[in-house]
Amino acid sequence: MNLKPNKQEDIINAAMREFVQSGFERASTNEIVKKAEISKGSLFNYFNSKKVLYIYLIEYCVQIIEGIIEQIDLNEADIFKRIENIGIKKLCIQQKFPQVFDFLISAKQEESAEVRDIIKEKIDPVYDESTKRMYENIDYSMFREDIDIGKAIEILNWTMFGFGEKGLSQVDTFENISEFGEQYLKEWKSYSEILKHSFYK
Predict the structure, then answer these.
(1) Which pLDDT band holds residue 160 (cuts at 50, 70, 90)?
(2) In which element (H, E) is residue 18 found?
(3) Which segments of 97-176 does DSSP mark as H helices, in order?
(4) Are residues 176 and 100 in contact, defined by beta-carbon separation less than 8 angstroms?
């Protein structure tokens, strides 16, 4: 924590990228220090072992997810607007830490016995809570009666995920995130209107 914020980000991003690409067992600290442009001695000065670093990243990501959960507006009953608001928050986070959500997904799929119990203890509860909050107080009466709501929500989530990936690739072309956010929101609304026309009454 005594490091400058940009150097902290370099280490976090390099470590997340390596764990996502290689998994816990095969992840190389040599690759992490090379990508973060620090010495191996410095890395192990901050984190005593690869496992300690991995746990730190899990806890860091969990804090990010908890922050998103706390900001979910439960008064917003329209699932399209709910997912839209969450998507914008995720995109802002990914601008700073591009691998954060991929790291969480890879951790959920991690099979190493050395970290499996820790993952279950720390990540599973926040996943359960985020899913619960995501769909809490949603007004499902807006959907057409002939629509399978579960499948419709899956399509909506897939669309938002794909759109988020597209947005992440474009974000560097804007001078500031607020300018990008306005453009992003405007473009997303054109997609969501098509889906609403398909799913809503």
Answers:
(1) confident
(2) helix 5-26
(3) 100-108, 113-122, 124-134, 149-170
(4) no
